[in-house]
Amino acid sequence: MNKFRFAFFGALLSLVILTISCGTSRKTGYSTQIPETKTLSILAVNDMHANIDQFPRLAFIADSLRNLYPNLLLVSAGDNQTGNPVNDQFPERGMPMIELMNALHFNLSAMGNHEFDPKPNALAFLLKNADFDFISANIHPKDTINFPIKPYRLVHLPNGLTIGFVSVIEINQRGIPDSHPDNLTGFSFSNPISTANQYLFLKDSCDVLIYLTHYGYENDVKLALQFPQDVVDLIIGGHSHTKIDTEQIHNHILITQAESRLKYATLIQMKILPDGSRTKTAQLLTVGNKGQVNEEIAKMVDKFNDNPRLNTPIAEATDDFSNREEIGFLMVDAMRASSQTEIALLNPGGVRLAYLPKGPVTVKDVYLMDPFGNETILYRLTGHELKSLLTNAFRFDDYGAIIPSGMRTRYHLDQKGELINVELYTDEGIPMELNRLYSVAMNSYMASVYVYEHEDPGASNYTTTAVSMIEFLRKIGKIPSYRDQQRVEIIK
């Protein structure tokens, strides 16, 4: 029977690729007996980052699976927002994603760090307009009316199964998720692991207990290993953009994640037998934007994409930009020119586009590179203060070294990869004067997050870095090649 059903599924989804098939069987600690074998089916996505162009395909897959599995649950492990100007620059920022998720009948979403990007008032608007719940147990809003984020959710299926979902989000060294601190006003956050353990009592109220996390794959493994055995069944993860294409079972817990931007989705199936034992399988399905689609959802996406302001060319790239570093150089040069400072600095995580082809560059392209809405902050910093900033940023930021304009840097690491020293040079390769004051520009995220020794508190120019870049590109018209430029050297 199973072989027949999966054959039928393959016929419906002609370009879906099966890259995982894993199974376990065990006895559960849950004592309630069920009279017959029951099945749980879940279609899970994570880190969609507003990639609405894939939604017609995802909708077709979800519709096809619901024909096979009427009780199918559709869930997201967070970071639905940020990454597509059509969504991010919408008059009600983020609403295209909410409307599309409503149309696809999502059942549940974890809170990701980028759910906070639209700022508190906009986040409250999005939460109220979602037809599904957002959950996270270690996010604690002071205003639970406007921010109805639940720690967990119990879902009762028509076949009699009760499914418990709990969520936790990763917090960084500053004790907050990776978002601009201003976006987190009115929220407090608790330790993910200790908080996760506080909700194991839900196993007494459900047949299956699932952690729908935005915590990262390595942290999900740590979480699984410290749980008591036979309490948690699944961890559906996000945040690290991990493509899990091999069997990942830790402490009897199946862990899944489907990379990012709707390249994939994971079909998870569990069978709960009358004696309490259960089997689990996970299949990674290719979503993409090729193959059959849901036409109604395609019309919604086309309407959102019909935005002349975003699609207007503003400059022309004379060469391909083949990686984030080259695009980062362009972005930081634009910041430096627009702010008329000697130096500009950009955090590597602020570069969100990995490839820009030769030819016309549009307003949309700029917002794809820089979607966050950060302002430019101006400073007067000594060479010593610059060195302190670069040193602490390198140790703090998992993305790597700060991207400079108007200077070059050399990082010395020991054999363990720990930072020993940072050297600062002018563009001509001359060591910078550490006692001299320099005019410096950086974005407001860097100004708020990086801790370093400096006297000048900085001042905003009240213009976002993206808007400054749009004006800069319009002015220069032709964008020069950044091929093979090297401004940062790392020596081990």
How would you explain this protein's 3D organization?
This protein has 492 residues and is of the alpha/beta class. The chain has 2 domains: 304 residues, 4-Layer Sandwich (Purple Acid Phosphatase, chain A, domain 2), CATH 3.60.21; 180 residues, 5'-nucleotidase,  domain 2, CATH 3.90.780. Helices cover 27% and strands 25% of the residues. The strands form 6 sheets. A 7-stranded mixed beta sheet has the order 1-15-14-2-3-4-5, with no helix packed on it. Strands 7-8-10-11-13-12 form a 6-stranded mixed beta sheet. The protein has a 5-stranded mixed beta sheet with strand order 20-17-23-19-24. It is globular, with a radius of gyration of 24 Å.
- State the strand order across the main sheet: 1-15-14-2-3-4-5
List the uncertain runs: 1-22, 25-31
Level-2 CATH architecture of the largest domain: 4-Layer Sandwich
Kindly state the number of beta strands.
26
Question: Any idea of the CATH topology of the largest domain?
Answer: Purple Acid Phosphatase, chain A, domain 2
Produce a short descriptive summary.
This protein has 492 residues and is α/β, with parallel strands linked by helices. It folds into two domains: 2-305, Metallo-dependent phosphatases (Purple Acid Phosphatase, chain A, domain 2); 312-491, 5'-Nucleotidase, C-terminal domain (5'-nucleotidase,  domain 2). The chain has 14 helices and 26 strands.
